[in-house]
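YiiD C-terminal domain-containing protein, Pseudomonas vlassakiae. Tokens?
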Amino acid sequence: MSADSQYLQSVLHGDIPLTRDMGLEVIDWQAQTLRLQLPLAANVNHKSTMFGGSLYCAAVLAGWGWLHLRLRELGIDDGHIVIQEGQISYPLPVTGAAVARCAAPDDKTWQRFLTMYQRRGRARLTLATTVS
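Tokens:
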């Protein structure tokens, strides 16, 4: 596990205790892509599949973690990341461990976010995450 991955897992487990109880682990942070893993055993529902709320949490945390690490890489540690809105669909049940992924937005979107943040001290960014 990379130093960045260890750092993020420590932040998640320390600042958001639910992540520890869910068994959430940071798999890796490379090429501006974050991957988190969620075990089935700690997140199983009455149908012996992954609980939808746990899947949603993993998706949100992948986006939150991505932004946290990316800002940290740029030396920006004075902001607060707030999830304003989320949307998820559940096309199929998850029957094993789940992996949540968040990759970088396109360069134009990222630059617009950074410019706005530097100008106003706050900005909005839409990130797409997947869970499989």
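The first helix runs from residue 3 to 15.
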